Amino acid sequence: MIVTSRTVRAAAMSAAALFALSACGSDGGETAGNSATPASTDAFDLIQPGSVRVASMGDARPYTFTDESGEFTGFDVQFFQEVAGCVGIEDVVFTGQDFSAILPGVANGQFDVGVAAIGITEERKQTVDFSEGYLAGYLTVITPAGAGVTEGGDLSGSRLGVVQGTLQEAYALKNFPDTELVRFPDNNAGISALNSGSIDAHFADYEAAKQYATQYDIELAINIPSFDAPAGFAVAPDNDAFREALNVCIEEKMEDGTWRDLYEEWFPGSPMPDQYLPSSEQTGDDAATTTS
Ligand code: SNW
């Protein structure tokens, strides 16, 4: 058997999480008549038991966005829905926020969880807890096509858009010292500014950049690996039973191929990362971390 870091972590889950999940996959019949909430979710400290309130983003396509009918969808949204269903919660309520409002909203108890390609960092762990990571990729500098930007130094003296509170903002502050940062509440505002010429470049997540490139005459000029900060679900501190139950189900939804199917659906053509695939499909050679 191939022992992945995921299987080791899953094996180390606390008894509380395993207890909470003991009804996972059953029809909950044992608890019928006792309460409207399956016993398996009683250990979770949720704002409204049986339901999960999610802070997300309405415009971070293809990670999280609202479709024409106003429904939240995208890779992160659908993966979270799968994981929530596995832990025994079918009622998942998404609310669109500015990125910078998501972690404060989770930390102060307005939301149970934050789902928006949120990279796990030590700094963010000061205010929220995180599930295990479920997505690792690149931070991408977007320029008008033909701008000739190929490395950070080419941005000297330029105006670079970032979404406030993102890893892109932190990276640019540290690594692009001669670049003027222009902060936006969301990527759509940044891309509008890029298209109107009021900024020279915009800095977003790779898959979002790829998406904008299908609509506008822009270029993915620089891709910076962000594999040290894989996205996780942000959970309020001290909700360990819930967080650990999410972890068990993240593992389950990777092992059964759900994660792989969603990745192929939402990120077509992108290199398939090895680490989140079913163990039987892992090669030990991570395409995503070796492709630049
Ligand atoms: O760190 C990456 C991760 O490797 C993956 O590519 C998904 O995006 C990231 O989590 C970075 N995302 C940004 C952040 O966490 C912006 C998120 C957003 O705009 N919704 O700050």
Describe this structure in words.
This protein is α/β, with parallel strands linked by helices and 292 residues long. The protein has ten helices and 13 strands. It has helices at residues 5-11, 15-20, 75-87, 99-107, 167-175, 187-196, 206-213, 240-255, 258-266, 287-290, and strands spanning 51-56, 59-60, 64-66, 72-73, 91-96, 113-114, 129-130, 138-144, 159-163, 180-184, 201-205, 218-225, 234-235. A hairpin with a 3-residue loop joins strand 2 and strand 3. Helix 3 crosses helix 8 and helix 3 runs antiparallel to helix 9 (258-266). Bound molecules: Deoxyfructosylglutamine (SNW). Deoxyfructosylglutamine binds next to loops.
Number of strands: 13
Bound molecules: Deoxyfructosylglutamine
Based on Cα principal axes, name the global outline: globular
How much of the sequence lies in strands comes to: 15-25%
Kindly report how far apart the N and C termini lie: 31 Å
What class do helices, strands and sheet pairing give?
alpha/beta
The profile of the biggest β sheet is:
5 strands, mixed
What oligomeric state best describes the polypeptide chains here? single chain
| Tally of alpha and pi helices | 10
Helix fraction bin:
25-40%
**What is the strand arrangement across the widest sheet?**
5-1-6-13-7
- If you compute it from the alpha carbons, what radius of gyration comes out, rounded to the nearest whole angstrom? 20 Å
Helices, strands, pairings?
Layout: H1 5-11, H2 15-20, E1 51-56, E2 59-60, E3 64-66, E4 72-73, H3 75-87, E5 91-96, H4 99-107, E6 113-114, E7 129-130, E8 138-144, E9 159-163, H5 167-175, E10 180-184, H6 187-196, E11 201-205, H7 206-213, E12 218-225, E13 234-235, H8 240-255, H9 258-266, H10 287-290
Parallel strand pairs: 1-5, 1-6, 9-10, 9-11
Antiparallel strand pairs: 2-3, 3-4, 6-13, 7-13, 8-11, 8-12
Helix pairs in contact: 3-8, 3-9
